[in-house]
Amino acid sequence: MKKTVSSLIIAGLIVNAVPTILPINTASAAKITTAAKIKTTANAKIVAGQKNINLNGVNGKLSSIVYKGKTLYSVKEIAAAFKVKYFYDKKSTSYKLSGNGKTISFKQNDSFMLNGNKKVSLYAPVTSYKNQMYIHLDPVVLGLDGDYIYNASSQSWYISTNKLVKGSASDAKWIDGSRVMFMNEVGEDGSTYLMDVQKKSFKQFNTTEMSVSPDGKQAVYTDENDMLMLADLVNGTTRQLNSDNDAYKANFIWSADGSKVFFLQGDTSAIISSVSIIDGTITKILDDKKDYKSDLRVSQDGKKLVYTLGNTAVTKYTDDAKTDVSDIDTTNTDPQLFLADLTASTLAPVAITASTENKNFASILADGSVIYLGDNTEDENKLPVLYKISSDGKTASTLVDDKEINSVQVSAQGNIFILVEEQDGSSGIYQLNGTSLVKKATFKDTISTFSVSPDETKFALTVSNDNGDHIEIFKNGNSDRLTKN
Question: What is the pTM of this model?
Fold first, then answer.
């Protein structure tokens, strides 16, 4: 159950983590070439200090002054943070920040700056103090093609030297060691982003369901006509895979070798099929006329698949014309997990569960066993339980039953991670190590989804607050924003 919490800039501060002080206030961080001496602004009291910032996911300080009730920030340190040149231009008698195709210019005591040739208002005049210039931060960050988020309650800044994707973003997943995929909604429009977490460069696709190949070089999705499309993420080209099957398709799962993609097909998701990436041939794997399959998963060796299926409720009528409903029988309609051997001559899925709780986050482990999260929706006081079913589907055991588990993931290395809502309302990520849990991170904010990087050193997080959802990358005790809601 999600809890509403106050918005914080940094969702991922580990408890007792020590912030790293950025080297942006050292003499070598940025040099200014000037032929004019900077005169200290007079006739008003100046209070000097430092403000907390998070620059691209690293905690630090930024020198500041308060002058006539306005907080201004060191131009020299801003230049160092953005790695741009800072100099005095004799011809225009103005100070300039220049780099990455952007130029900002301003003069001491002016209440505006020039972003290129565009005049931008400042909420206070450019002010000098102890031979350093101080300026209104927001327009400078935006003018250098960066982005920011200010937390008024903690009086701290998150500053990105790249633009953040705007919207309500969610469900971030790692596709390799440097890129994540996530959904983003702006108004009623949804799309999928593939983003480099360091450069914050991205590719956008007008689809809300996309699956990336194991090597991260291709992605499959459907167009508005439910035709399968294959995007080459290296050269940017896209081609249509099939031309004669416009049935609804969803839940795309790549084979480990990248040669084909499994998916659910049909308006009621009754069919399991696969498509060849080479020639686009669609092959039906299972068509047992049983509707509403979901959560399709395929083992890494391609020999097994598992899915969830609940029997359809039986509607009873009082008349032969079936116009008057007398009862709806939901007996035995609870969702169950089915396991199938893809190497068998005849595919014969077998139910491996029989319990009444919901079954989520099913995964097939390397040894052929299946894990899933059982959630009893009829008893709010009963905690979810993480179960493991043996590879033959006959024996079930309990892995975790004492945590409020919200999500489960099996990493690329085969390790099990869980996202937990703690009793104090914080969020925690644990790794299951044999029969014990090892806590990997604690977060003050509500984390609704998480994804473990292939090397297990980073987490991609969906952070939820009053303004919606956004994406952060957590590493070594620091969080870096990818999106802005």
Answer: 0.83
